Amino acid sequence: MAERGQLPHPAKRLCCRPGYGSGCRPGQRAGGSGPGGGALCAGPSSAAAAAALGLLPLGKTQSPESLLDIAARKVAEKWPFQRVEERFERIPEPVQRRIVYWSFPRSEREICMYSSFNTGAEDPAAGPGGAAAPGGAMDVAAAAADENRLPFRRGIALLDGGCVDNVLQVGFHLSGTVTEPAMQSEPETVCNVAISFDRCKITSVTCSCGNKDIFYCAHVVALSLYRIRKPDQVKLHLPISETLFQMNRDQLQKFVQYLITVHHTEVLPTAQKLADEILSQNSEINQVHGAPDPTAGASIDDENCWHLDEEQVQEQVKLFLSQGGYHGSGKQLNLLFAKVREMLKMRDSNGARMLTLITEQFMADPRLSLWRQQGTTMTDKYRQLWDELGALWMCIVLNPHCKLEQKSSWLKQLKKWNSVDVCPWEDGNHGNELPNLTNALPQGANANQDSSNRPHRTVFTRAIEACDLHWQDSHLQHIISSDLYTNCCYHDDTENLLFDSQGWPLWHEHVPTACARVDALRSHGYPREALRLAIAIVNTLRRQQQKQLEMFRAQKKDLLHRGVTSITNLEGWVGHPLDPIGTLFGSLMEACRVDDDSFHGFSDFTENLGQCKSLEYQHLPAHKFLEEGESYLTLAVEVALIGLGQQRIMPDGLYAQEKVCRNEEQLISKLQEIELDDTLVKIFRKQAVFLLEGGPYSGLGEVIHRESVPMHTFAKYLFTSLLPHDAELAYKTALRAMRLLVLESTAPSGDLSRPHHIASVVPNRYPRWFTLSHIESQQCELASTMLTAAKGDVRRLETVLESIQKNIHSSSHIFKLAQDAFKIATLMDSLPDITLLKVSLELGLQVMRMTLSTLNWRRREMVRWLVTCATEVGVYALDSIMQNWFTLFTPTEATSIVATTVMSNSTIVRLHLDCHQQEKLAGSARTLALQCAMKDPQNCALSALTLCEKDHIAFETAYQIVLDAATAGMSYSQLFTIARYMEHRGYPMRAYKLATLAMTHLNLSYNQDTHPAINDVLWACALSHSLGKNELAAIIPLVVKSVKCATVLSDILRRCTLTTPGMVGLHGRRNSGKLMSLDKAPLRQLLDATIGAYINTTHSRLTHISPRHYSEFIEFLSKARETFLMAHDGHIQFTQFIDNLKQIYKGKKKLMMLVRERFG
User: Fold this and answer.
1) Is the CB of residue 188 less than 8 Å from the CB of residue 181?
2) Of 397, 387, 383, 629, nearest to 516 (Cα)?
3) Which helix (H) or strand (E) element contains residue 174?
4) Which of 137, 308, 498, 544 has the highest Cβ tally under 10 A?
5) What DSSP character marks residue 190?
6) Dihedral pair phi/psi, residue 123, rounded to 5°
């Protein structure tokens, strides 16, 4: 850390000694000593002193600690050495030595804090309420792997390896060398380390290793730990100014000359410069009394804080931000936030200092202005870092013992950041229009108007508002200071009572603000006080819940009649920027697992408040304000349930809504880690009943606002927790939570008559629920959980099915539930559950109805699955879906998927059908097929014919439907397909008829020589040819009319001349075996059409021909010649045709030359 390889900063304090003659001077040892006699081993010889260092337990000391050491230790902790010198005219040298000795830090904890990231062993990285800071600190496995690379661990290894040498303490300055052992690629290096310290804090470090980092390097750690662990092996000298003061003139001159001689290359220019200035009467150096001494300790004006390399903090944060979340930069920034929390917990002033440096770099991030200009939102992880930044500032300004001037300084800085245009808004997307609720509390009368009047609330707004809060309220001080603070005088006639009916203290304040106080107390190392306030808040919430229930019961009839809902919480506690429920839960859970010693913090809170100084609260029962049988654990669980069940409005903006979901899931995951016992089950029962009966105050009440945050995720957790203990209550809770009013087509009447305070705050609000897909998936998960649990219970399955059909509006989610129910009902290890199968089928039918008229890419999968499900249910289910096909399927689906699958052999085998059942099912399938063919002949005719093959009447009916539709709407491709099918089934004449109908719909132009219908045309001509001359004669005029492509016509012509028509005909028809003449109809007509097509195609191609197509064109002419030559005067026609080409296209000289070469 710090200025590696540089000299320490010059000492600020000027040390001088007035001339006291030969008498004893301030700072001189009583009894005196000879020149240079200042060396002494630092360590105390007594075991008591060793115990004070932590080397021995106090219980095992051999003799009491001396009064000198006790006094010197206290002075060394609190007083700058200059004040000691000014306070006393004469300080005996042994006293000076003991003060200097005790001024070095005695705890390794701070050394560790300044030389390593927190690895997650403790909780300082936790965000508000104990929730892990976004992204979390390093996970335990990664931390363990990296632990040996931490400077602190490496420093310990260097110390244990005997690498620390030449350790010398001169006054308040420690120096030494640390040898870095040779590595495979690095030689052995010796690092010179220097450390300045004051009042048990390291104030500056210097190391020649050259490493630059936020934290102390391993060499500084090694030297510091050497001094802490082996103080008796460190030579201790008084400050160098004291030693010099004991020298006479000759000694001083000798000292200076020897110093220059030893280090002449480094110090000679400086020495000469100083000599010149001292010899000059008017020089600046002679105007100052005394001279600086880097070993003399701190002056009165020096700030007493640990050394923090501010430049490195800024550089590292800037680097991490520039990486944009890549290379683990988000994790590194979270570790820095964790370090700030660790410092706050140690009550180290550098916590606020470090956070200021981090915030300045965050505010200077160039991406902020870029995002604002482009109108884009920052990434989710980056947004969470800003949230943690705001929460940390809230903790800092709520420090119960910060000075007013310090708070004013922070407020000024926060307002400055808050006023910057690019300062991120609290809700992540846009400023919300809710009132300033943080100051809606007894202390908020003088709320900061500048921040409340701003159009947008930024991440710093809450911290700015918190600057107006104080800790002077006597009731609040009593709550956090004592476990015995009670009042038996109870009057239940006011809203904000200070005590409940049992005399226990209550704390009425805006809940997030009150919980922010708890977080501040925890963060600043006051866990006991945080716990006391948390208990008071939870007791207040429980009392409020009870009062709300009583109020609703009194007005229930009227409220339910009017359908009015009153949202009392515009700010939800779960997903709130201050995470109040997470804070309370974390504080109470922390109390469950910490041991007494670690939980007491560092000092008595009341000692700093200046009240009740004699109170030994750590020995009093902390469970004073809990019911019999209750514990911190039960209280933590109960407050989590209260918060999760709170009815609250869904916030605006994507980020705020995602945060609601994320925080809810985080809290539930923590609850799931707790093993439920009988006591906790009672809490669950109690809260479930409260939530069900709590009316508009509860998210599970009978009347809720249309835009309330849904309870699906929470209810699923409640359901699974209660199910083994109280199934009726579990189902009642889960079924109540299934609703999703925001998707209902008509809003409840309550939306039209909201209470005045709601209508004024949320005017004309229509939900833009960005997380709706996630919410619907959670609703689906809740339903699936209930279906699984209800297997085998007919009544419950019917109830769950009814709830699904009423409340779930997404076809994909209902389909998923249908699939889930099917899987559960048909598990391999048991017989199928027919009731659950029917539920699955019913849900599948609903999906079919919902998606029948809408596009859905999974529709075919859904239809196939439904048939599978119906098959499992039984033959009556299959028969039913076929008889009602028009409400479930399109005609194509009904014939190509449903009826085909039903009629397959696998289905018949699966259902073990007898002949009668098979025939009945086949009859339904044929009826369906004919209905579909009538409705959509284009797509269903072929399937209908296939399905009706085994029933003559049905088959004839289907064929007639095809004929009727052939002239109306069927395409040539559909007709050709059916015609081929007819030929395949042994109906060549029907095939021929359909083929001729198809030909009337076809039109092939001259250049469509790759058209997909060509094969159909060739097949149709071949079929006609096989049937006989009459059929061929009938189809050729249709071919000539429909086909203009020369190559296709020539192919047909060639095939017709190869064999005699009817030679391969069916039904025993045979002709004489004579080939048809090209000079007579119908082939003459086909030949003329083919020659004409070649001529027309030739002219068309020559219009836009390019040289690269010349050779292809010559081949085309060659094929044309073959066709021309089939006519008796074909040679003459072709010659005339070529001559015409030469004349018409004589400009295309190269092409015509090629024509002459080939054709003359």
Assistant:
1) yes
2) 397
3) strand 173-180
4) 137
5) E
6) -120, 15
Amino acid (one-letter) located at 285 = I
The Cα 131–Cα 125 span in angstroms is 9
Residue with tokens 């705050």: 761
CB atoms closer than 10 angstroms to residue 765:
16
- Helix ranges, 629-754 (H): 632-644, 654-672, 678-693, 712-722, 727-737
**Packing angle between helix 772-789 and helix 727-737, nearest 10 degrees?**
150
Place of tokens 């060396």: 39
- Is there a contact between 1034 and 996 (Cβ–Cβ < 8 Å)? yes
- Does the pLDDT at position 1031 exceed 50? yes
Q: Are 306 and 201 in contact (CB under 8 A)?
A: yes
* Helix or strand run (H / E) with residue 527: helix 527-562
Cα distances (Å, whole numbers) of residue 432 to 428, 458, 1060: 10, 10, 89
| pLDDT, tens only, 67-109 | 887 877 787 777 777 777 777 777 787 887 888 888 788 888 8
Q: What is the pLDDT of residues 17-75, one digit of tens each?
A: 543 333 333 333 333 333 334 444 444 444 434 444 444 444 445 678 888 878 777 87
Using the Cα atoms of residue 1132, residue 1133, residue 1134 and residue 1135 in order, give the sign of their dihedral. positive
- Closest among 396, 523, 398, 391 to 460, alpha carbons compared: 391
Respond yes or no on whether the N-terminal peptide bond of residue 527 is cis (omega within 30° of 0): no
Provide the edge-to-edge strand list for the sheet that holds 40-41: 40-41, 235-237, 164-170, 173-180, 189-198, 201-207
What CA dihedral angle connects 156, 160, 165 and 169, to 10 degrees? 50
Closest CA to 638 of 650, 626, 649: 626
Q: Which two tokens stand for residue 26?
A: 């301030």
- Mapped onto helix, strand or coil, the DSSP state of residue 306 is coil
Mean pLDDT for 507-518 is 92
Report whether 803 contacts 735 (CB < 8 A): yes
Nearest by Cα to 1131 from 1143, 1139, 1121: 1121
- CB neighbours (10 Å) of residue 780? 21
The 10 Å CB-count burial string (b at 16+, else e) for 1117-1132 is: beebbebbebbeebee
Distance CA 1062, CA 1071 (A): 6
- pLDDT, one tens digit per residue, over 737-773 is 999 988 886 544 333 333 333 333 333 344 578 889 9
62-68 own/partner pairs: CB under 8 Å, 24+ apart: 68/94, 68/95, 68/98
Contact of 365 with 423, CB cutoff 8 Å: no
Torsion of CA 469, 471, 475, 478, to 10 degrees: 160
Can you tell me the distance from the alpha carbon of 42 to that of 101, in angstroms, rounded to the nearest whole number?
Answer: 6
pTM over the 0.85 mark: no
Sorted by sequence, the CB contacts under 8 Å of residue 90 that are 6+ apart come out as 24, 25, 26, 27, 28, 30
End-to-end, the C-alpha distance of the chain in Å comes to: 97
The answer to whether 346 and 109 are in contact (CB under 8 A) is yes
The tokens of 127 are what?
Answer: 């965000």
Q: What angle do CA 595, 600, 603 make, to 5 degrees?
A: 155
Burial code (b: 16+ CB inside 10 Å, e: under 16) for 218-255 equals bbbbbbbbbbbeebeebebbbbbbbbbbbeeeeeeeee
| Bridge partners, residue 196, by sequence | 173, 204
Gap between the Cα atoms of 973 and 469, Å rounded: 82
Q: How far apart are CA 480 and CA 518, in angstroms?
A: 10
3-state secondary structure 126-150: ECHHHCECCCCCCCHHHHHHHHHHC
Reduced to 3 states (helix: H, G, I; strand: E, B; else coil), residue 217 is coil
